[in-house]
Amino acid sequence: xxxxxxxxxxxxxxxxxxxxxxxxxxxxxxxxxxxxxxxxxxxxxxxxxxxxxxxxxxxxxxxxxxxxxxxxxxxxxxxxxxxxxxxxxxxxxxxxxxxxxxxxxxxxxxxxxxx
Length: 115
Hints:
This is DUF1508 domain-containing protein. This protein is of the alpha+beta class and 115 residues long. Helices cover 23% and strands 35% of the residues. It has one domain (3-105): PH-domain like. The protein has helices at 35-47, 84-97, and strands spanning 3-8, 14-19, 25-29, 53-58, 64-70, 73-78, 102-105. It starts with a strand and ends in a 10-residue tail after the last strand.
């Protein structure tokens, strides 16, 4: 089972990544100004994963990636894959695991180990 991981970008906007059960990033979302918007999109993905489309593309370096879209809006962009088969496995993992994945919030500026 994968996980949605919320974090903060350097420009104080929020993003989330979807990671596989092995901890590898499958896709990264677009930026969100509010954390609440980020959480709402994650909940929508979990509830309606079948309504999303995946547009497959090839980068200039020859690697493969996809854009996860809802209607005409890009929600997230995947990492780069070396083969079309690995690309499809990434998409399949999202479809199978997204609805039951956990949400982890690492957007706070608190350190686990204080000085």
